[in-house]
Design a protein that fits this description.
Blueprint (H helix, E strand, L loop, with lengths): L16 H20 L2 H4 L6 H35 L6 H39 L4 H9 L15 H16 L1
Helix pairs in contact: 1-3, 1-4, 3-4, 3-6, 4-5, 4-6
Length: about 170
């Protein structure tokens, strides 16, 4: 859970853009850790292959987003170091361009992973009540799948993310 500078959870109206980004990253981290906690269960040979495939794909995307978050934080720190906190208006522009694409990816992944976690927990609950993995899988399969993260579905998310990554690559040279 993200806490503002005063140590309290701020309302949505009180969140600045950077606060929203920090909150999204905190939510991402919590969901990512919860999803990772299911690794032993997902490795069981009786786990439904479709659910395992969805889990593996979600983990791969989460790993990529985690790396992107780390690189964005490193690059932003570098730019802040060059220009100071204000950066003559440059730092907020860079943060906005890069953050918009990354923020969209983080929020999308977090939502999808949360839904996948719910499916995994329901599968485990049904099995603990005596159902076979196949019976539980048939019921969980009707819950609907967590759509896989797609950064290429139109809009500005993908161009901003790619542009931000290219900008970071340029700034690091």
């Amino acid at each position: 859970m993200y806490l503002g500078e005063n140590g309290q959870q701020p309302s949505e109206a009180d969140l600045s853009y950077m606060d929203k980004f920090k909150k999204a990253v905190a939510d991402f981290t919590a969901v990512y850790e919860n999803l990772r906690a299911n690794e032993a269960y997902m490795a069981k040979p009786t786990t439904d292959p479709r659910l395992r495939s969805e889990y593996d794909s979600m983990i791969d995307k989460g790993d990529y987003i985690q790396i992107s978050i780390n690189k964005a934080n490193e690059a932003l720190s570098t730019v802040k170091g060059w220009f100071g906190m204000d950066g003559l208006g440059f730092v907020p522009i860079v943060a906005g361009l890069v953050g918009a694409g990354l923020l969209a990816a983080v929020v999308k992944w977090t939502t999808d992973a949360y839904q996948l976690n719910a499916k995994i927990e329901e599968q485990k609950r049904l099995e603990s009540r005596g159902m076979t993995p196949q019976q539980a899988s048939n019921i969980v399969g009707k819950m609907g799948g967590a759509p896989l993260l797609s950064l290429g579905g139109g809009g500005l998310g993908m161009p901003l993310l790619i542009g931000g990554m290219l900008l970071f690559k340029f700034l690091r040279k």
